[in-house]
Amino acid sequence: MDKPKREAILDLAKYVNERIRVKFTGGREVTGVLKGYDQLLNLVLDEVQENLQGLPEGQPTTRNLGLVVLRGPTITLLSPVDGYEEIANLTNSQHQ
User: Which domain holds residue 21?
Assistant: First the structure.
């Protein structure tokens, strides 16, 4: 007896050749152009920039990585860059 085929929760096909933002366990974050993916959510991104956090003021906040392969099990969040707007962290401003 064949099991029914599962449908993907996330349809990445519509984001191929589009810029996406990816966050990982541990807090690292990158943006890049989605070039490919597989059923385990491993991603291939090009023109990747890592957003660096916790650096002293005056240091670069991004670094260019080029073409990378991202392991699916380490990804915690995926979002398109278009339509994305970063807002201030309200919890930090309330404690100052």
Answer: 12-94
Residue 20, domain member (yes or no):
yes
Any idea what the Cα angle at residue 86 is, between residues 83 and 92, rounded to 5°? Answer: 160
What are the backbone angles phi and psi of residue 84, rounded to the nearest 5°?
-95, 130
Per-residue pLDDT of the chain (96 residues; tens, 9 = 90+): 677 766 667 789 999 999 999 999 998 999 999 999 998 899 999 999 999 887 777 777 889 999 999 999 999 999 999 875 666 666 655 555
Domain count for the chain: 1
CATH classification at residue 48: 2.30.30.100
Structure-token pair, residue 54: 């916790």
User: Is 3 part of a structural domain of the chain?
Assistant: no
d(CA 33, CA 40): 18
Do residues 52 and 65 lie in contact, with contact meaning Cβ atoms separated by under 8 Å? no
